[in-house]
Amino acid sequence: RRGSPQKLRGQLLPRFFRSGRVVTQVPQQERTRKRPTWRGRKKSRLSNHTEQDQNKAVINISGEPLSNDRIRVLSKGLSFAPTYSTNGFNTKFDLFSFYRNLHLKAWYKQNISPTTDASVSGQAVSVPSKTPFKPKSTFCPIVQNSTLNTFAKKVNFDVENLFKCKIDYHQTQHNLSKTEQDAVESLSKNEHIVVKKADKGGPTVVLSKDKYVTEAYRQLDNDEFYQSLTFNPTEDLKTELKGILTEAKENGYISDNEFKCLFNGSLAYFNLLPKVHKHLENPPGRPVISGNESLTEPISKYIDYFIKPFLTSLPAYLQDTTDVLNNIKELNNIGTASFLVTMDVESLYTTIEHEQGLAAMHHLSTRPETEMPPTEFIVSLTEWTLNHDIFIFQDRIFKQVKGCAMGATALPTLVCTWENDFILDPSKYQFFDRIIWWGCYIDDACLFWSGSEDELISFHQYLNNINPNIKLTMEYSKDNIHFFGPRH
């Protein structure tokens, strides 16, 4: 490239017209003398502002210094995906998936149903209700469509020619500079640090591995909540779960496709999210179980699918921040509020009792007897998942014996049902005439209080005396409050 069109016109024409006026060519020395001064100051202001934002997005408590390149990379977030080089096999695989989708659309447009094993054998499968829980389809129809076949051949021909060309991958535009790529590699090879997302606020936290492991074992060594196992119980749990699902299929609670989809098997992983908003130097960790493809995760998704629609019927349930604002706008007597109040349940996930959560879920999700699956089956599956929270940390296997493991798909739904049932207990009606509006989301609650300050403190003390394991912190003000609860 030899420059922008404006620069080329300046080189070729000593004088040209712009907007009806004759513009004299500016000498090269004068242009280079004036422009860099103004642009340099503007670029400097932008870079300083960006550097401040990057420092706020990264919290380093590891004790190791971070270069500017490392900070820039980490400030992009843990979900940032660097550009990778083109791979011929992956490209062909993606093209095949694309062609398959086109053929499927053409196939079903003709209103032709694929042949299934059930229809061939003559067995009628009783499907209780249409759910998204089914094995991933591998059906690839053969469609005699000349347009699709010609399109696929031409695309394949062009792609093959493209790969035959000598591509200079160094000229490929990358979303990271060379120094930033080196920073990513050095961070991934550093065994002395751990990079995690903060529990609240969104920054990326870099802490030493020793500090991270110490905090993890501080929690896992608590015999009240966790039990260390000397063997891997996965095979025994698979056998037990298979028996439960087989009986459910025979009773018509689940279909054959759901049976295949709900049966999985692997161990979950234990992680910590540093709570830097509570302590910056030695932040406590919020325990989170990463259960993707674990034994209980498909069951948890199945439970959440049937229970979550009932949450909208709860009087105090908040869906997201927009829901909070909409509820406040609809209030007519908000002017009578004396205090704005927020409450937070301390360590709710690890202290909530299974019996209370299951009772609240059963009370909320009572379904007609004609609907499948029945409520008792869903509650029994929930109880099974709660009693088999098994995970691994540093080659050691643990089982949670009290509370709930944060990370399961159905857990927020279970907690919301329990909290609404806990708050709306009839024994607390003596205080309800002081509450103008109450909303809650998982372990956070927000309310407008019309009573006196002494009555509010008495109400807070009363809630903390109901269950010795459940403690609520409270903040209140007449002007403003901070509410971290619902997120989009």
Secondary structure topology:
Layout: H1 5-12, E1 15-18, E2 21-24, H2 28-57, E3 58-61, H3 68-75, H4 88-109, H5 117-121, H6 146-164, H7 178-189, E4 193-197, E5 204-208, H8 209-220, E6 226-229, H9 234-250, H10 256-262, E7 268-274, E8 285-290, H11 297-307, H12 321-329, E9 339-345, H13 348-351, H14 354-364, H15 375-386, E10 390-393, E11 396-400, H16 411-423, E12 435-441, E13 444-449, H17 453-466, E14 472-477
Parallel strand pairs: 3-5, 7-10
Antiparallel strand pairs: 1-2, 4-5, 6-11, 7-8, 9-13, 9-14, 10-11, 12-13
Protein name: Reverse transcriptase domain-containing protein
InterPro entries: RT_dom (IPR000477)
Domain Reverse transcriptase: 310-477
Describe the structure.
The protein has 17 helices and 14 strands. With 488 residues, the protein is α+β, with helices and mostly antiparallel strands. A five-stranded mixed β-sheet has the order 6-11-10-7-8, covered by helices on one side. A hairpin with a 2-residue loop joins strand 1 and strand 2. The longest helix has 30 residues, at 28-57. Residues 5-49 and 114-128 have low confidence and may be disordered.
